[in-house]
Design brief:
Layout (H helix, E strand, L loop, with lengths): L3 H14 L12 H11 L4 H14 L3 H7 L1 H8 L5 H19 L7 H5 L6 H12 L8 H9 L8 H11 L2 H17 L25
């Protein structure tokens, strides 16, 4: 694991390039953001946005989603991986939101994680994007980059998250997920990373480096 000062240097490069990164998911409110994040598991944001473009026009609240029903919901999201299970979770969490939270998305980590299909990463992404909180969400991109760039000694999402929470100021944690996810999505890809166009190549000593 690199020294904190060097990790901050790497993040400063991302900050200079994109000081205020945004999620590539499309959403209208906290609920549609939650649904989009649930749908994005093992799927691309582009694919999710294509499916939700029409879905969110008629079902942008928990009650409207329940009124739509699971069978019609599946028709909107059938192009997304694992859509059957995701549809079940979306209907189930919508029912809980209606019955227990007056149709509102709770602003609480434990409450969010208790919802079907919502894990720690999903809850952290929602809190970060919607409520602008410095929560660290570790997905496959962040986990891969944490290892490649020696940003963490952790080998699990939770241990990597704990390392980042321990060493990073809130101002960095606020945008960390977006910086790393976008970097991992377009430059430091799992297969054939684009090292020629990597802005932090000089900090990288990974065996995956291709120059």
């Amino acid at each position: 694991m690199k020294k904190t000062s060097e990790i901050l240097q790497i993040l400063d490069v991302f900050k200079a390039q994109d000081p205020n990164p945004k999620s590539e998911l499309n959403y209208h409110n906290a609920y549609t953001l939650l649904v989009a994040i649930v749908l994005s598991a093992q799927s691309t944001d582009k694919g999710v946005n294509k499916a939700t473009q029409e879905l969110f026009k008629i079902a942008d609240t928990p009650q409207k989603m329940l009124d739509l029903g699971i069978d019609k919901l599946k028709q909107y999201i059938k192009t997304i991986g694992l859509y059957n299970n995701k549809a079940k979770n979306i209907i189930a969490l919508s029912e809980i939101l209606v019955n227990q939270y007056n149709g509102e998305v709770p602003h609480n980590q434990n409450a969010l994680e208790s919802l079907p299909g919502v894990g720690r990463k999903t809850a952290n992404v929602l809190r970060n994007v919607w409520w602008n909180e410095p929560t660290v969400a570790v997905d496959t991109h962040v986990l891969r980059l944490a290892k490649r760039l020696e940003l963490s000694d952790g080998s699990t999402p939770l241990s990597v998250e704990e390392d980042f929470n321990r060493i990073l100021p809130d101002e960095y944690k606020l945008h960390l997920n977006h910086w790393l996810v976008l970097f991992g999505r377009y430059i430091c890809k799992a297969q054939k990373p684009d090292c020629q166009n990597c802005p932090v190549s000089k900090f990288c000593s990974s065996s995956d480096k291709r120059l």
